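for the recovery benchmark. tokens below, seq after
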């Protein structure tokens, strides 16, 4: 079996697994406890905050650990909306955000907030001027993802940040950076980002842990109340092994970014070209998209059917993002990119990782050809 679902969950680095085990065994004390073992666990969290902050080019006190990017995104969107509602109750986001941002916005909409969902173009690109045009005096937050998790489009965050702040300097700018970190250096200062979410398990770290950068001076309404952990913004005993292992993954992934791109981009380009050459398939990813995502559709063929056929042939792929893949509806992302329903039902996402080689791509190409041929015959027979 070859695993092509790195964008859903990447296999952890060996160092990450070892760190988790070591910390679980040796540092099980509660970091809030005042005894020596507790203060040692607290020191490990502090150190992890410093490592993550260095990788993001920010201050350690601006890093918050959560239970995952889903929580980070919920906290960024709802925490900002609730905290700053005296400034206004308007939010701007896009139609192609991850459900953890999108559904948070819908929830706020149901509670009386106004949300403007900006549509992308047909390649999944969000036009900065359309975001800026939506910003008003009462806009408290703009949330735009760095890299789309389904098709891999990279958003022009520099321009978006600049235009948002020019339109309203008090509007907060949140970036869901989950799918961008492995391939692109985060430039939080240049993007003028106030909030930034990361998910370690997408970058070969542990799952069930997340990061949220909260720019100094920004406050959020806490969604979890209780103890005073994480600056009072996120109550709950810290997951020390996962936090320490996350810092390891954030550092390692950042250090290996150049190597990751050098390996991944030629493989991605080769695969994109190959898929474009199969007449039944329609490529949905841009050539300048994320180095690890290739998305295409087989219009008229359900994505699940093609994915199952590929799995029979030893290739593990996704139909779309893992969070939405159990939905029977057409992809919200592809529909908002203007694809018809049959194309939006027939998506396949192949996501690459740094363990893949040219030989793996060659095997995947053969399997793709075989799968399409086999399904074409079945489909022809059914007509
Ligand atoms: N945002 C994006 C863009 C994602 O791809 C994901 C993971 N599917 C998330 C947020 C949520 O991350 P987590 O799995 O850590 O909750």
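predicted aa per position
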């Amino acid at each position: 079996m070859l695993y092509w679902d790195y964008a859903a969950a990447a296999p952890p680095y060996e160092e990450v697994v070892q760190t988790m085990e070591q910390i679980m065994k040796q540092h099980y004390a509660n970091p809030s406890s005042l005894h020596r073992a507790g203060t040692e666990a607290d020191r490990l969290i502090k150190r992890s905050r410093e490592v993550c902050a260095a990788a993001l080019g920010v201050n350690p006190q601006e890093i918050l650990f959560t239970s995952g990017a889903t929580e980070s995104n919920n906290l960024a969107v709802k925490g900002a909306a609730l905290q700053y509602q005296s400034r206004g109750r308007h939010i701007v986001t896009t139609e192609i955000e991850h459900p953890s941002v999108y559904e948070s916005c819908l929830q706020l909409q149901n509670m009386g907030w106004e949300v403007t969902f900006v549509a992308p173009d047909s390649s999944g690109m969000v036009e900065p001027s359309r975001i800026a045009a939506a910003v008003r005096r009462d806009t408290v937050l703009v949330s735009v993802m760095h890299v789309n998790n389904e098709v891999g489009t990279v958003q022009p965050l520099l321009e978006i940040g600049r235009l948002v702040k020019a339109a309203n300097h008090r509007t907060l700018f949140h970036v869901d950076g989950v799918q961008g970190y492995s391939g692109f250096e985060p430039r939080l200062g240049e993007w003028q980002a106030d909030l930034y979410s990361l998910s370690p398990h997408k970058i070969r770290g542990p799952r069930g842990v997340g990061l949220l950068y909260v720019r100094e001076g920004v406050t959020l309404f806490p969604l979890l109340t209780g103890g005073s952990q994480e600056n009072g913004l996120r109550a709950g005993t810290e997951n020390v092994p996962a936090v320490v292992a996350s810092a390891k993954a954030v550092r390692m992934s950042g250090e290996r970014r150049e190597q990751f791109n050098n390996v991944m981009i030629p493989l991605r380009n080769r695969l994109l070209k190959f898929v474009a050459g199969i007449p039944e398939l329609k490529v949905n990813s841009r050539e300048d998209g994320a180095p690890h995502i290739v998305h295409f559709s087989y219009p008229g063929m359900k994505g699940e059917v093609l994915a199952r056929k590929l799995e029979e042939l030893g290739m593990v792929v996704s139909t779309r993002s893992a969070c939405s893949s159990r939905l029977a509806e057409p992809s919200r992302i592809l529909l908002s990119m203007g694809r018809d329903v049959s194309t939006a039902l027939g998506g396949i996402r192949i996501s690459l990782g740094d363990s893949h080689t040219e030989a793996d791509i060659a095997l995947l190409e053969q399997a793709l050809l075989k799968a399409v041929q086999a399904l074409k015959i079945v489909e022809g027979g059914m007509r």
